[in-house]
Every structure is written in structure tokens, then in C-alpha cells.
Amino acid sequence: MYTPISSNTSPPSSAKVCKLQNSFEPGFVAKGDYIIGGIFPLHYNQEMPDLNCTYRPPPVKCNGFDPRAFRWAQTMRLAVEEINQSAELLPNYTLGYNIFDSCGYPLTGQRAALAVLNGLSEDDSPTCSGASPLLAVIGESGSAQSMVVSRILQPFRIPMISYFSSCACFTDRKNHPTFFRVIPNDDYQVKAIAQLLVRFNFTWVGLVRGDHEYGRFAVQGLLRELQGTKVCVAYQEIIPMLYNRQRTLEILQVMRSSTAKVVVVFSTEGELTPFLSDYMTQNITGIQWVASEALITASVFTASEYYPYLGGTIGFGIRKGKISGLSDYLQTVNPQMYLNNTLVKELWEALYGCDPSLSSGSLLPSCSGQESLLEQHSAYMNTSSPRVAYNVYKAVYAFAHSLHNLLLCQPGSGPFQYNSCAQSNNIYPWQLQHYLQEVTFNIAGEEVNFDLDGDSISYYDILNWQRGMGGNIEYVNVGLFDGTKPAGEELLIQEDRIMWAGHQSEASCSHCVFTFIHQMPAFEIL
């Protein structure tokens, strides 16, 4: 962050000033009366630098541009612009933002969090002398990254609203007192997965998870939910966060040799992308995948080449919503409007396979303007049923409604000491958190609020990966999990709509995925 140093000019040498020790360029910036930070995994893997201590190490290089996460960032920008144009919500005030890339990894997530705190330059940030201009952070995606961001923000009492971190660990208010989220707690998801496994008599299953808190807590919760059922776990395997081919091949050998052909996976697309590449190279088929919400709507796996290996996957997705202006807004993000933004250049290269910068050294052909969307990223412009993007949208509006309520405070009737209110020109983040904890509002017909742990109401759509008209994977809604229903009544499934692995429908597949049930001796789940 900042290092206080003595100044040899004005102010006097005894004074302290702040100097940034490094810089990290944001993806998008907008000025306003009040600033929100945004952290998104705009890339999904990393290239670690050489840690030779004889010279200053270069920054971590981020690879694997993720158009889906880029859409989430644009949704935050859209929400801010809508609010700034509203005559009812925060009239006479404007919101600004600093949006950074976490690269889908805790180390680079830490870098993004520090960059959000510091501001863009010494001149832009009075952090060392007064209230921070940053009132809240919208982020992060993965639970491992959010864990790091939460711990960094906690000493400054800056609230964060996550749009995709579902780990049950965040309900611990002692360790994460400023954490909120608009995605359900994983305790509900593992209950839903356990009910699904029992419903379809999946007696033997394998568990595969990422090497992070999200995967660890999810597996612990699932094992707890499976106690007392007839579902047994044949194996548990951990995918390294940083790709390791030897370890990957060892996991694949376990999966290939096991008679358990149902595999529950708690992983993000970052670590799973190279894993599935080897899975396909090894030509492993016949696995019935059961996916968590982190994977079930990952557009990177919807291309036609994935269908023979992942077709039939079933899992629980975030409840979809509606963002009326998103499609038009996404079309305004182009290299002509953002000439010096490298992220927009990467977006164009990923979506269209061409170089919009007319660079002579590029390995890609120059864009002509006539290109069509590449198949694997066509989901970027599909805004018919936004899920994570809708969560981002709700998170920004939760912040705005909370700030709006804070600014309506009448002196003498406030919630703070001596019935005081926050000062509109010097708001502290902890004052905003008071209003965030109590906010309730409606958006697109849905009520949004938070319980005392910062959690939201638990709803999931049950999604099934089926072959689309063009051979690609499409998400078909086959049911619902409603966490507000009485125990045992939460799961609603249209079984006749399900297509299982091996391209079998439920009607014609009453036994096709159960042939392995009695092939291994049972053992207790501890």
C-alpha cells in the first residue's frame, strides 16, 4: 500500500506524506461523489514470475481472458450509470467506480484489493488523512479470492458485497464482519446436492474439488448431509489451483479405474479448464457430472467439443433475473470507444478472433468489422437469462439503496452516537454498513435484503447440459430448489426433461447410471 516518507519540500520535513510503492492499472474508472470498488476475475489463470531475489520481481502475468467475467464488470458499470441517471435513487449525487482484475487467484486478488484501497495515485486518495473515498467493494467471485479481500478490508471496516462467493465459511461474523453476498450460502447448495443424489439413487459417487476454502467447506458440508443416507463416497480428489499435469493425470486415473461413475465437482473454471483439457485428451467418457453453481453456468465449456464429455451434466445454478438494458450496453463496449483499454482489445480478440488495434506484430488478422462471434464465446452476448450478472446488478443497487437511506437521515434521529447522522461529505464505510445490514428493496419483482450473517434468500435453478441446435451445450432448466420451503420439500424436479450422460433421457434411462451401485463394498462416511 502506501509508505509514509519524510518530505524535503513543503510540507516541512517533520510531516509525513504517502507514496505508492507500486501501481496496478484498473480495468475501468469513473469519477463520482462516492466511489465503489469492483473486483472481477477478468482472466482465469496466471503466469507466476521468477522469484529471484537479485532484482525487483515483475508482476504476476494474467492469461486466459474471460468474456463472461468481463460481462459482469460491464453490468456493474451499467448499474452505476442507471443510478446516476435516476431521479429517485441518490438524486443530486453521483457514483463512481474503480474496477480491477483479480485474475481468478488469491494472490492477484490481494493485489486488486490493495489497489482498490489505495486509489489510482497519491493525489486521488486522502486515505492517510481522512475518511476513505471508497465506501464499499463489489466482489469477489471465487471464495478463495473473497477470503483474501475480506481480510484486507476488515481493518478498515469497509463492507464488501460478493456476487459469486458461496462458501459457508463467510457466515462467521467474527472473522468476516464486513462481508455480505447476494448469492446463497453453500450450506443450502450441499443440502440440495445431497437431496438430488438420494432422489436418483446415486449410491456410489466420487468427489472432486478445487484446492481452496470453497471446495473444502463444500465437501465437508456434503459429507455431513450424506450421513445417514445410502450414498457412499468412493474417492475424494483435489485439483491444484495452479496446473500440475502429473497430479491431474493421477486424478484422472482414479476416475477412470473407479466403478463410481457419478462425480460431484466443486471447482471454478480457472483450475478446471486445464483439468478438463487433459480429461478430454485421455478420452474419458461415461461420467455423470453433478456440478455446483461455480461451474454449471461457465460459458467456456459450452462449445461443441465439450459435449461428448460433459453432456448430461446436472447441477444448481444461481437464480436468473432480468436486466433490460444489458444487451444494448454490451454492444457499446468496442475498441473504437476505448482506444487505450487493453481489456477491450482482449475482449475483441476473444470474441472475434481478430486484432482490433491494427498492430503489425499481432499473430491475429486485423478486424474488418464483418467477423461473427466465435462459438465458444457466443454466450457473452446472450443476456436472456443473466445469473451472476444479475447478482452483480443487485449488489450495486443494494449499495445505492443503503447510501440513499443514509443520506436521508435527519439530525437528532440518526442511528449513531447521540442520535447523530453521517456527514454527507465525510461518510465512513462502517456507517454505510449499518444501513446495508438493514436495507430492503425490490428489483425486478424480487425482494433483496440480508440476514444478520450477511446472507441472502436461497433459491437455485436446477440446470441440465443438453445438446443445442448447433451441437453446442445449452442450459436447460429442469427444476428448482427453494430454501424457504419446509425441510424435504425444497427440491422440485421435472424428471422427464433431464438428459443424462450418454445422451439418455430420464424416461429411457431408468438404470443406465446405476449399474455400478453394488460393485463396491459399502463403507461409512465419516
Automatic annotation (TrEMBL):
Start and end residues of each Receptor ligand binding region domain: 72-467
Keywords, alphabetical: Cell membrane, G-protein coupled receptor, Glycoprotein, Membrane, Receptor, Signal, Transducer, Transmembrane, Transmembrane helix
Any one annotated GO CC term: plasma membrane
Keyword Glycoprotein: yes
GO molecular function, one term: G protein-coupled receptor activity
UniProt key word Endoplasmic reticulum: no
Principal place of residence: membrane
Record's subcellular location: Cell membrane
Topology class, membrane: Multi-pass membrane protein
Name this protein carries in UniProt: Receptor ligand binding region domain-containing protein
Organism: Pagothenia borchgrevinki (Bald rockcod)
